[in-house]
Recover the amino acids of this structure.
C-alpha cells in the first residue's frame, strides 16, 4: 500500500477497533502512516494505532465492515437491480450479503481525528 495516500474517513472510522490489522511499526507518526495508505487513530488503547483501512467502495456510504451489512436484496441479485433499490453492491466476499443498505455518512467527529 506504500504511496497509496490517506484513506477516506469512512474507511477508518467504521472499522471495529478489535478488527484492526497493524499497518505500521512502533513509534510510527500519523504522516508516515497516512503516506503508507493506512488509518491512524490513537484514541483506543490496546489496539494498533496505524491500521489497514476498510476496502474502498464506489460510494462512501457503502464502506463498512462485512458484519455491518444489512441485506437489501436476494440471492443472485444483479448490480443493476441492487442499484435500483438505492443499495450498495459488492460481490468480492462469498457468503455475505452482496446487496446491502448504505450507512449514512453523518457523524464526522471521530473521523476528524484521522
Amino acid at each position: 500500500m506504500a504511496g497509496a495516500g490517506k484513506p477516506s474517513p469512512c474507511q477508518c472510522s467504521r472499522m471495529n477497533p478489535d478488527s484492526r490489522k497493524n499497518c505500521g511499526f512502533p513509534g510510527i507518526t500519523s504522516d508516515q502512516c497516512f503516506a503508507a495508505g493506512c488509518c491512524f487513530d490513537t484514541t483506543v488503547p490496546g489496539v494498533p494505532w496505524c491500521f489497514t483501512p476498510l476496502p474502498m467502495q464506489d460510494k462512501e456510504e457503502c464502506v463498512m465492515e462485512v458484519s455491518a451489512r444489512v441485506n437489501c436484496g436476494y440471492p443472485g441479485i444483479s448490480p443493476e437491480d441492487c442499484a435500483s433499490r438505492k443499495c450498495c453492491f459488492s460481490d468480492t466476499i462469498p457468503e455475505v450479503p452482496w446487496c446491502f443498505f448504505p450507512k449514512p455518512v453523518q457523524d464526522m467527529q471521530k473521523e476528524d481525528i484521522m
The helical segments are 9-13, 30-35, 79-84.
